[in-house]
Write a structure and sequence with these properties.
It is a single chain. By secondary structure, this protein is mainly β. The protein has one domain: Complement Module, domain 1, CATH 2.10.70.10. It is built from 1 helix and 7 strands; from the N terminus they run E-E-E-E-E-H-E-E. Strands 1-2-4 form a 3-stranded antiparallel β-sheet, with no helix packed on it. Strands 3-5 form a two-stranded antiparallel sheet. A two-stranded antiparallel sheet has the order 6-7. A hairpin with a 2-residue loop joins strand 6 and strand 7. The chain is elongated and about 40 Å long. The two termini are about 30 Å apart.
């Protein structure tokens, strides 16, 4: 995820920051991805795993990840267009 728009240097209690999925990913679910600055200076938690890779969203295979001796198929997302060579 990345902050949508230009981040500020500081925020006050009650302000919200909206995030967007990075290129090659899209929103998993509906709505916006926002966090809110609390009175104690901490931020609310964003939704868990709010973005999904375009390949997974299209019903493709989970992204491969490397391990010693070769590749294994896992559920780690990878940016659109990633390739493996070994």
């Amino acid at each position: 995820m990345q902050i949508k728009g230009t981040p500020k240097t500081s925020y006050t209690a009650g302000e919200q920051v909206e995030y967007q999925c990075r290129p090659g990913f899209r929103r998993k679910g509906v709505g916006t991805i926002t966090v809110t600055c609390g009175a104690d200076g901490t931020w609310t938690d964003p939704p868990e795993e709010p973005c999904i890779s375009e390949c997974q969203a299209a019903g493709g295979s989970p992204s491969p990840w490397l391990r010693p001796g070769g590749a294994a198929w896992g559920s780690l997302p990878a940016p659109l267009g990633v390739g493996l060579r070994w």
